[in-house]
Amino acid sequence: MNIGIFTDTYFPQVSGVSTSIKTLKDDLERKGHTVYIFTTSDPHVPDSAVEPNLFRFTSVPFVSFTDRRIAVRGLFHAYAVAKELKLDIVHTQTEFSMGYIGKFVARQLKIPTVHTYHTMYEDYLHYVMNGHLLRPYHVRQFMRAYLYHVAGVICPSERTAESLNGYGIKTPKAIIPTGVDLTQFQAAKRPHLREELGLADVPVLLSLSRVAYEKRIDRVIAVMPQILAAQPNAVLLVVGDGPAKADLETQAQALGLGQHVRFIGEVDHSAVPDYYRCADVFVSASDSESQGLTYIEAMAAGCKVVALAAEYTNNLLDDPAIGTTFTTDAQMGAQVLRYLAHPQAFDDPAPLNEKLTAISADTFGDAVLAFYEQAIAQNAEITTTTDADQEYQAKG
């Protein structure tokens, strides 16, 4: 199968979406399919760069999300490329520029479009004129317009599916959690990273994400005094970059946390597994996760997870051998301390192994392929019916 994935974000841009796409691409290729990525240009990728099966289109930074980009041209060029590649299906992973280009390509080639709904936009309205311009109603209208004439929608979680259902969207949906390439976490590339950071004999907590306000890293920093009262040497590593970093640094300084909160900055995607592996507990207070990919990655690396309670996290972290959830800051601190004080008490491998099988890249890829095949079969049926109707009308 020749598969065209259309996305506004891809490596070297680091995000849960780009990670999800690469995981899917790699697994589909392992299964013998050919995947082509249609994405935006990137200032960190020279025009002369050789990127097999990847096509970049001229773009500019997106308003309010300057680390994300929007294509400004390439509609007909993308169609010409896709026609030559003989795509069987288009898979859009954005509702913006490259998504609409993908839908145009599919319509011209008479092949189906499936879409993955990654972002809960109502959690991000505050980025646009501090929330004074856009309202949830606008998100509803926007999503209904984009998903018109889409063959099916992949929802990474129950929450995303319920959101679309709440918008009145009837497009066929499949809940397919994003998988993780477990092979990336089986062996460390930098096995001595903890020692390199000077943290060999201290408890290590980890926050790894885009450093944005909706990730609520401020709540994690706020409980550090509680944690330090019981574990005086504990250190929180904040890995990533984003608009909230300066405010978080100010918060840590105001609390007198010094070297107990270290801002590592953005790291290369290949280094991410090592940061999970060098931590004792991954902590997240984010209330905006649609699929919680970082939780899954932490689990794959053998790192316990403490995350904000929600339907998704409660189902994912359903055994203390994997992780646990909290509702208050005091609970967050207490659960982190429980893992730090009793590291061997929650090491039953069975629950984790069962969970990892369900969220593996292989399982993810199989589910997406089944969804593709369903969309292609339905499209062929519709096309055959349409052609027959047109022939009948022509004979008049």
Helix content: 40-55%
Average pLDDT for all residues: 91
Q: What is the strand content?
A: 15-25%
What is the helix tally? 15
**Class based on secondary structure composition and strand pairing:** alpha/beta
As a whole number of angstroms, the C-alpha radius of gyration is 22 Å
Report the strand count.
Answer: 15
Shape: globular
Order of helices and strands: EHEEEEHEHEHEHEHEHHEHEHEHEHEHHH
Amino-to-carboxy terminus distance: 38 Å
Low-confidence runs: none
Q: Strand arrangement, largest sheet?
A: 3-2-1-6-7-8-9
Largest sheet: 7 strands, parallel
Walk me through what this model shows:
The chain is α/β, with parallel strands linked by helices. Helices cover about 40% and strands about 20% of the residues. The chain has 15 helices and 15 strands. It has helices at about 15-30, 75-85, 95-110, 135-145, 160-165, 195, 215-220, 225-230, 245-255, 270-275, 295-300, 310-315, 330-340, 350-360, 360-395; strands at about 1-5, 35-40, 55, 60, 65-70, 90, 115, 150-155, 175, 205-210, 235-240, 260-265, 280-285, 305-310, 325. It has a 7-stranded parallel β-sheet with strand order 3-2-1-6-7-8-9, with helices on both faces. Strand 1 (about 1-5), helix 1 (about 15-30) and strand 2 form a beta-alpha-beta unit. Helix 1 crosses helix 15, helix 2 (about 75-85) packs across helix 3 and helix 8 packs parallel to helix 13 (about 330-340). The two termini are about 40 Å apart.
